Amino acid sequence: MPMLANSVHAVAVDQRGHADADRPRSGYSLASLAEDIVAFMDVSGRREVIGLDVGESETEAFWREFPARGLSDEVCVWSW
Question: Residue 33: which of 13, 47, 10, 12 has the closest Cα?
Answer without folding.
Answer: 13
